[in-house]
Amino acid sequence: MPDMSKSIHRFFVLAFIVLCFVAGAFLNLRLRHLRESEAFYRWILAAATNERLFEEEDTEDQDRALFSRCVETAEQSPDLRDVSAAADAPALDGVSLLGRIASDYKEDPRIWEFARSEATAGLRGDFLNLAREQKLRFAQDIQYAEAQAGGVNVFNLFFGFRKVAANFVWIEVDRYWHQGNTYRMITLMRTCVALDPHFIEAFVIGAWHLAYNVTARMLDTPWPEREWHPTYEVCLGEKERFYYYAVDFLKEGARRNPRDYRLYFDLGFSVYKQKLQDYANAVKYLSEAVRLPHEQYVPRQLFLCQELNGQYEDALAGWKDYAARYPDSTISIDVAPRFILRNEGLILERDYEQLRGQAAQAGDPAEKARLEAQAQDVWQKARAVWEKVNDPFGEGRKARMDALELREEGRYLEAIAFLDRARWESSDLWQEFSDLIIKIKQEAKIPLTVSEKKAVLRDSVVGVCAGMPPEEREKRLRAAEELQATF
User: Fold this and answer.
1) Residues of the chain whose pLDDT is less than 50?
2) Is the torsion defined by CA of 104, 106, 108, 114 positive or negative?
3) For residue 186, what pLDDT is reported?
4) What is the dihedral of CA 280, 283, 288, 291, to 10 degrees?
5) Rounded CA gap, 63 and 56, in Å?
6) pLDDT at position 15, please?
7) In this structure, what is the dihedral angle of CA atoms 50, 71, 42, 169, given to the nearest 10 degrees?
8) Residues 6 or more apart whose Cβ sits within 8 Å of residue 401
9) Which of 10, 256, 259, 403 could form a disulfide with 197, with the two C-beta atoms 3.0–4.6 Å apart?
10) Beta-bridge partner residues of 229
11) H/E segment holding residue 229
12) How far is 167 from 160, CA to CA, in rounded Å?
């Protein structure tokens, strides 16, 4: 009897050990599946972000081909066909189904389910193989595949310390910056984010170093000394290249972390608006920042860039919505009303110019008179708006209206005097009014000053540089010759 009892005890112990091994094996397979699915999910978000925002072609990498296969599978999935209404915006025209779904961060659970589903098992396997072979650009930071090939222990060891290593590398980046070793710093910045691709501060501060600190003491490169950059399709000198290094650094951060608004904000505001004055791209990336959970100041910069880009209706609607959303904030009380009026006035000015243009082309005298009367009515409405804007910008717009009326009467010198005084009182209007003064002087055959002649010549060679495609260079040189002939 005691032997029977011992046998039963041994049987249960053995059964328990076997059960533990089976459960452990099952859990290991389950964890492996989840890790693989997470890596695949992150890659899908990165590839979808690239398709929707950056539109960059891969050369040797196979991201685009694999993503196209993912799109085909997604289009056959009943769970992904009902795209949310928010993803039907005109800005998403030409974007794939998977890209449209990925545009809304609230749809991330659906993409996660898609990434871990049985329907994508084959795609997941291909993804892991390509990642191991380093043939996927947007998976270069997903070292999971290589680590898994060496065993779970290697994975845990390396990935447990990579964030610590990234912090130590970042300390070295800061040390090199203070020593003035800029180029060493840039290399270490890239090493830092390779170790920890989710180190958002490294991307943001690194881009700030590139676009601001490194270039702080550099002079703008004269246009004839710049060289054509085929990737960016712009003329760049040493200083200007750093701006685009910052752009690339932030774009890489956005691919790795597509749900962090800070990367899109700095890309749109800090680089495209402040440094490159590329307001179309500033609007593009600030719009993406606003689409994600963000701080209260983010949409305000979007509205400012929309105004600078001539999107007055969008800026107007944005300021009105902001004031309604935060009625008790100081910005809504003191700032938003001014910008609402400002965009209303700019819309009326634009409408006036359009009506005048239509009237000039009208063949029927009655239609011409009707359009001119309508234009005059819009003109008076614009003046009424600027009367309400009690700041240098509003005063400057009124001065511009006075100058244009004097110009119509042939009183060119008085018109120039109005504009000259107004441009000194509002820095926002300096360039616009300086250009208008030159235009009026050329129209009235009034000699330009030396600085104005230099400005015309400088503008005439903007975009002309070594290595530029011949057809583009010829076009700009012809424009330069035409301008020089006016002197």
Assistant:
1) 84-88, 143-157, 487
2) negative
3) 85
4) -150
5) 11
6) 63
7) -30
8) 379, 382, 383, 386
9) 256
10) 234
11) strand 227-229
12) 13
The CA distance from 164 to 147, in Å, is: 18
Roughly what angle, to the nearest 10 degrees, separates helices 108-116 and 2-49? 120
3-state helix, strand, coil in the chain (%, to 5): 75, 0, 20
Identify the pLDDT of residue 145.
Answer: 43
In the chain, domain spans: 2-149, 447-487
Phi/psi at 311 (5° precision): -90, 65
What pLDDT shows up at residue 156?
A: 46
How high is the pLDDT of residue 3?
61
Task: Give whole-number Cα distances, 475 to 176, 320, 462, 471, 482, in Å.
Answer: 44, 43, 12, 6, 11
Token pair 């209260």 is found at: 296
What are the structure tokens assigned to 329, written together?
A: 């904030």
Amino acid 94: pLDDT? 81
What is the length of the chain? 487
39: its two tokens:
């890596």
What residue type is 63 in one-letter code?
D
Q: What is the pLDDT of residue 151?
A: 43
Cα separation of 18 and 376, whole Å? 91
Closest CA to 145 of 160, 153, 133: 133
455 in Cβ contact with 434 (< 8 Å):
yes
d(CA 144, CA 360): 67
User: Which of 458, 461, 463, 457 has its CA nearest to residue 487?
Assistant: 457
Q: Find tokens 């800026």 and name the residue.
A: 315
